[in-house]
Amino acid sequence: MDKLISPPLRERWLHAKSRLIDANTLGQHQSESGCIPIADLAPGDINKLLSFGYVEPLPPMSKPLGAVRVFTVLEKFVDNRYTRRRFLAVPDELNSFFQDPGEVDLPAPKELVGALAFEYARTGDFEAFFTQFPIPEEARDFYTFAAIQQEHPDQEPHVQLFRCTTICTGQRQCPCVAQCVAHSLASRAISAVFPRGEATTQADTYIDNVRISGPAADVEKVWVALFDEINAIGANFGQLSAGVSYEFLGIHFNHAKRTTSATPKSIAKLQRGLRGENNAQTNVAPAGLTRVGLFGCSGLCRPFLRVHKKRPTQMPSSLCIRHVSQRNSRLALWRLLAFRARSMARLGRLRCHERTALLHH
Fold it and tell me: Model pTM greater than 0.85?
C-alpha cells in the first residue's frame, strides 16, 4: 500500500498510519485509567459486528493495552424515521496522546464548482471506507472494549471483551489515511489514461467520495482505469451517478445549465436541525470524525466548509451535539445560499430571487 500513495502524500500517510496500526508507535502510550468501557450498543449489534468482521473476541492470551469507546448513531432518515445505525469507535486516550490529526487536503468550494465547466461527470464512493483498513494482529490489543452478551434469553447476561479489527472511525488520523488513498487512486487512474500529462479530466476526492469530470469519452476511460486501480487493492467501491446532472457532497450539480442547488436531503437535514430533531439520541460526535461526518451528524451541509486546498484542515477533538441550535442551523443555511449565489455569479447566471428561494422550502 505504501507504494500506491502518491509521493507528495507519502510522508503524511506514513506519519498518520504509524499512529493507527504500528504497535511500536502505539506502545508509546500507556493506558492511564486501566478501565475498559462497556459498549453502548443495541441488542444484536455485537453479533452483526462479529459477522461483518469489524470486531473479534479478545483472545484468551491477549491483554488489553488500550480501550475504545464504542456506540452507534442513527442515520439514513427515510419516511420520518431513522432506518439504520452507524457503528463508531473512539479511542479517547490515543486521541489525547497523539493529538496531531495529520494534514488533510480537501477540495475547496471553488474547485468543486469549477467542474461545471466540463460537460460530464461520474461519481462514486468507497463503501464503509474506514472498515477497509485492517489493524494488524499485533496492534489490535490497543483497541479493546467490553460488551454485554446474552447468548440465550434464559441465560444471565455477562460481560465479554472484544477488540476492533479495522481502524476506528473516531480516531484522529483516519481521515488523513483515507484521503491519501482516495486521492492517490484517482491520480493514478488519470496518469494511466494520460501518461504524458495534459489531462483533460479533473478528479475531486473528499475522504470516501470521488468525482471524475471532463469530456464524456475521457471520463469513461479514467473511470475504467480507476476501477482497475481499486480492484488491484481489493477495495469496495460503488458507482453513484453518471451524466450531466447528479448529486455530490450534498449538492446537486447540473453541467448542462451550469448551476448548483441544495439537494432535498440537505434541505431536510437543515429543517430537522431547526426543529431540533437531528439524531437526538447522539450525545457526542467522536473525535477524529471528518468534518464531513461531523456536519452530517448535526444536520449541516457538507460542501460549505471553509476548506482551502493549501491550508490543511484540523480535525476537532470533540463536538457536543445533543441538539442543533437554531442559530447554527440558520448559519449553515445562509452559508448554503451564499455558496450557491457565488457559484452562479461566477457562471454569469445569478438571479436575485434565487438567494432566498431555498428559505421557502
Answer: no
